[in-house]
Amino acid sequence: MSESRKISTKSTLYAISFIAAIQLFSLYITFQNKPVYVEAGYSYAPAGPSSQGSFVNVLLLLLTVFSATMVLGWLIRKRKTTTFRMLIFTSLAFSCFVLTLITLDSMLSKFSFYSESFFPYEVVASLTPVFLIGYAIFKSRSSKLLGVLLGFISGEVGSFFASTLPLLTALLLPAAFAVYDIYAVFRGPLKQLISAAPGSALEGVSVKVGDFTIGLGDNVFYAMLPSLALFYSKLVYALVTMVAVDAGVLITLSLLSKRRILPGLPIPVFLGLLVLLSSRIL
Q1: Nearest Cα residue to 152 out of 56, 21, 14
Q2: What letter does residue 208 receive in the DSSP assignment?
Q3: Could you read off the pLDDT of 122-179 as tens digits, one per residue?
Q4: Could you tell me which residue, 35 or 272, shows the higher pLDDT?
Q5: Fewer CB under 10 Å: which end of the chain, C or N?
Q6: Residue 214 pairs with which residues in a beta bridge?
Q7: What is the pTM of this model?
């Protein structure tokens, strides 16, 4: 997370409103999709749901992100900007299409008039945001349009993580990424990527809101924690978790007056996890 040294109240309000909108959208998706995920038993647990397996699951995801960041950084250093954008677009498009299709199918299947003949229309509807992402990245270069689309994807991915990861993995994952975020921003590949990339190249992996630049991964975890509370507990705990995360975001934004760039995850994530672990989720 970064910004210009002078912080305006207006920019802070924009940033918090943007994040809150993503969180509420993620909560809505979680509410819609919960019966589908529970019934189908969808789960990401390649190493199993045990305690040891959960640590391995988190490690695998961390290594995936680390490797992807290294590859992106190499592409930027080699000035392969088009390939860089293509990789970003491919990952965003795949996630957006699959998760939108799941959500649409879940929503429509609750109506009595729903039938399998609706599926082609669901596919077309799910492809619409994919085309918009491509248009925003390669054609219009509209930061506002891309910001809305990235917020849309962040809410979907946050809900997906909350709904499909085993509980222990889902609790360990944001904590692990919050710690990794400190290293990545100050010493690791993310710092190198930010330093090497022109601002326009990072539009697919970050969102400009007012004076602030917020990473796509930050928004995913901001959305994931309240959705996790909703999936395993009640709406009231989800809303309290959301407030805790947003309070952490406000603290982080206020600290940006002293530093040009800060990791956006540690304070919001650990405040959110504190609320989660204090609630009846366990």
Answers
A1: 21
A2: E
A3: 999 999 999 999 998 888 767 788 889 999 999 999 999 999 998 889 999 999 999 9
A4: 272
A5: C
A6: 207
A7: 0.89
Confidence band of 202 (pLDDT split at 50, 70, 90): low
225: CB partners within 8 A, 6+ apart: 162, 174, 241, 242, 245, 269, 272, 273, 276
Arithmetic mean of pLDDT, 182-211: 71
Neighbours of 113 (CB within 10 A): 6
Nearest alpha carbon to residue 242 among 276, 211, 280: 276
- Tokens coding 44: 């990401």
Helix (H) or strand (E) holding 209: strand 206-209
Locate 269 and state its tokens.
Answer: 């994530």
Q: Which amino acid is at 29?
A: I
CB of 45 closer than 8 Å to CB of 169? yes
Residue with tokens 């993620």: 26
Cα(246)–Cα(249) distance, rounded to whole angstroms?
Answer: 5
